Amino acid sequence: MTMYVFGHKSPDSDAVCSAIALANLKSRTGVEAVPVAQGKLNPETSFILNRYGFTAPDVMNSFAGQQIMLVDFSDKAQGPEDLDKADIVGIVDHHKLGDVTTPNPVECWIWPVGCSSTVLKSMYDFYGVEIPKDVAGIMLCSILSDTVIFKSATCTDRDKAAAEALAKIAGETDLQSLGMEMFKVKSAIAGTPVRELVMRDYKDFKMGGNTIGIGQLEVVDLSLLDEVKADLAKDIQALKTEGGRHSVLLLLTDIIKEGSEMLIASDDASIVTKAFGQQPADGKVWLSGVMSRKKQVVPPLEKVFAG
Length: 307
Ligand code: MN
Ligand code: MN
Known about the structure:
Number of domains: 2
Strand content: 15-25%
CATH topology of the largest domain: inorganic pyrophosphatase (n-terminal core)
Strand order of the largest sheet: 3-2-1-4-5-6
Bound molecules: manganese (II) ion
Largest sheet: 6 strands, parallel
Order of helices and strands: EHEHEEEEHHHHHEEHEEHEH
């Protein structure tokens, strides 16, 4: 029986690259595994796959009756509608434990590191499987993307060590310039519909019975977003209404200045003040040093909603 391996909705580079790497590992340990994605790839991910000669995984959104492994998420809200009807045989992740449950024992690799590919590097070592050069390349880029070239608060020594080892296998010597090349691709937004930008790296979270959507756009210079900022602010208002959400927050992250401007659409904007100790003005606020949704944005918000 074929096993499908996939990452979260609105797939980022880690969700795609780590799914490919995990499917490769499983295939080489005798399990027929195929990587798929829950949506279209972003430009950064296409750049990475191109660079190492991979084609985009097929998009697949229904898994009822299938064997699956989840990568880079364990929250139902980030999975397909019929996730409950699938047979989850494994999870590889680096986020807080989500709300999926399984009737059977499950192979679970969830570590507090900066990237799923860092966990995967250890899985290859554990199973004694050599990492192919091209797979090492996409795993390396996955780490550079998730850790914002090792600058994110989520980056650990394990991520750096894994990246170094993968770079050797992939034959990459200048990780800074490789990372910057990726983030320049990621920063290019010309001609992209506003909704696509909002959804590019977007996740819904359940907090105190409310749906809170949090998106993030990472750029090498915030001024690149000047001309679309007003439209982005308008669109997150629309997205909030459409989904009956309590809030939609959009982080515009400047990876050089190392901080984020947060655009806010909310039924109660005081949650932002309570969570971050800063008063928004005009539906936005600058959060210095904040680059990680997972580590610096979701936890303080959850605290506010837990009351
Ligand atoms: Mn991800
Ligand atoms: Mn990740």
